[in-house]
Amino acid sequence: MTKAMSVIVTLAVVGVLSAAHSVADEGPILGAVKAVDASGKTLTLQTTAQGKTRDVTIILKPESKIVKFARPSEPGKTGFIEQPLALSDLKPGWIVSVTTTHVGGNEVAEVITVVMER
Amino acid sequence: MRTKLFTSFAISVLGLLVGLCLARPPATRANGDKHEEKGGHAHVPAPLEYADVHVPLSVWTDPAMITRGKEIYTVRCAVCHGDQGDGKGPAGVALPLKPPDFRDKDGVAEMRDNYWFWRVSEGGQIEPFKGKGSAMPPWKSELSVEDRWAVMAYQHTYSGHNGPHVPWEHPESIAMGRDIFAMACVPCHGVAGKGDGSVGPMLAPRRAPQPRDLTSAEFKFRSTAPGQLPTTADLFRTLTEGVRANGGPMTIGLRGHRIMPSFQHMPVEQRLELLEYVKSLNRGFWERSAVKTITVPEPPTLTPERLTRGQQLYADAECLACHGERGRGDGPSAPTLKDNRNLPIAATDLTRPERFKNGARPEDVYRTLGTGLGGTPMPSYADSLEPDQIWDLAYYVLSLSRGGQTAATGSR
Questions:
Q1: CA neighbours within 13 Å on the CB side: how many for A18?
Q2: Portion of chain A with pLDDT greater than 90, in percent
Q3: Whether the predicted pLDDT of B371 surpasses 70
Q4: What domain range is A36 assigned to?
Q5: What is the dihedral of CA B121, B122, B127, B131, to 10 degrees?
Q6: Three-state SS across B164-191?
Q7: Is residue B30 predicted with pLDDT exceeding 60?
Q8: Would residue A75 count as lying in a domain?
Q9: Residue B151 CA to chain centroid, in angstroms?
Q10: Is the pLDDT of residue B338 over 60?
Q11: Number of folded domains that form chain A
Q12: What sign for the dihedral angle of Cα B49, B163, B101, B270?
């Protein structure tokens, strides 16, 4: 009985810890573009989370999208239109938000959204 | 029995695990631990440098300002905050910390104008927002003060509220301060802050000082000109340091013989919340156009010549009429002094700087001489003395204390 109980408690602890870990890594990464390596297909961001600033290198795969939003130029049209960008279009200092997946310990970009050009 | 207990425990644990797996965690790495339901937006008090930036009342409903704000918002803000003000602009939905929904009446009502202005000005570059991963850009270098007010006025329209965005329209914005006031201040300052609390008369029976009427425009301790309301920083200093004075038996237990206790151990955020409530008792804080404070120059070196000049000024400015030749508060006019409530008031004994109500550091004495003490016979010398002369007089006043060393040490 006691042995079974310890197994369940251990499972519970492991479950809670892994759930917490997945919570910590689910959201998009927000940061300022620090460096762009168009040939190496990587993007380095300076991010701040929980009070700590760090550099995060993001790998781009062929399907990774880079977009920014702009007002339509046609008169009378409202809202925003999505404009695709190339990695080389990103400039240091721009603020971007990146949704990623973890692959082999790396952050691989799904969608890179330009939040602010500056 | 034990088996049943164990089974229930196991089911509970499994239920918890399943719940954790199924529950969709907040999509963020940056949200704070509070206000999750509002996307991690915590309406913390604005820091002192922004605390006095209250938006003029007319701005909120001025059609020209709202139109000007809409133009700026459409170009600069809507990509994140959305054309509908719902925080769902195309770039906003990709952010870890979602932009707020300006249509959320309750959320907007809780947001004080100085907080709002601070956020628009500094964006997410400052704590606690930086640590939460806010992408909000700082607009202070790109938008003028009026432009920022205009944007706020336009954003405010999304909430559906038609009046000015002020505490007396949104009491929820000062709810925390009101609670602290009820616990810490009501016994002396009274329920309505009129200085008529039940304990007040026992502090100094039938004489000044009495607890401040916080609804009046008369504040003793200011860095502003006579007749002006104090800055939030002035109020913060008084709240933090308390007020030292000869009081009745009720003050004996207060450390340092204070007639108002020091609240230095109250967390800074709570003191700021409290002051936002205190300011809400007087609409003048929102109606003043600009806050001008007297500048306290760097203290000059204390020299014997400075003290000699100060002694002469002490006589010429008729300080000795109230404070006496030796500064003991026993001048010929001292027995006749009354405050603005017509209560007898003692001239401060300048030989006891530990009881200077406005502080005993050289800069405190300079400020007191420059601003006077509102509601008391102590006048301002800002118009009659040059800054260097005020320093001479301040040093001389401090030299009257025992040993005359206070000018050098000057602790409050």
A1: 9
A2: 55
A3: yes
A4: 27-116
A5: 120
A6: CCCCCCCHHHHHHHHHHHHHHCHHHHCC
A7: no
A8: yes
A9: 25
A10: yes
A11: 1
A12: positive
CA B161 to chain A, closest CA, distance in angstroms equals: 25
**With an 8 Å Cβ cutoff, are B29 and A9 in contact?**
no
Longest dimension (CA), chain A: 75
Q: Which residues pair with A96 in a beta bridge?
A: A31, A114
Q: Could you tell me how many helices (H) and strands (E) chain A has, helices first?
A: 1, 6
A70 is a domain residue: yes
Residue A47 within a domain: yes
Q: Which two tokens stand for residue B111?
A: 């947001």
- Measured between beta carbons, the chain A residues lying within 8 angstroms of B71 are none
Residue of A nearest to B24 (CA): A23
Determine whether the interchain pair B2/A1 forms a contact, defined as Cβ–Cβ distance below 8 Å: yes
pTM of the model: 0.81
B141/B146 Cα distance (integer angstroms):
13
The two three-digit tokens of residue B300, written as one number: 């000059």
Whether residues A115 and B83 touch (CB distance < 8 A) is answered with no
What pLDDT was estimated at residue A13?
61
Considering the domain boundaries, does residue A1 fall inside one? no
Segment B280-336, tens digit of pLDDT: 999 999 988 788 899 899 999 999 999 999 999 999 999 999 999 999 999 999 999
**CATH code for the domain in which residue A54 is found:** 2.40.50.320
The first and second tokens of residue B212, run together, are: 């401040």
Which class for B162: exposed (0-12), middle (13-18), buried (19 or more C-beta within 10 A)? Answer: exposed
Q: Which residue has the tokens 């014997």?
A: B304
Portion of chain B with pLDDT greater than 70, in percent:
84
Residue B15 is predicted with a pLDDT of 54
What is the rounded CA–CA span in Å between residue B345 and residue B367?
21
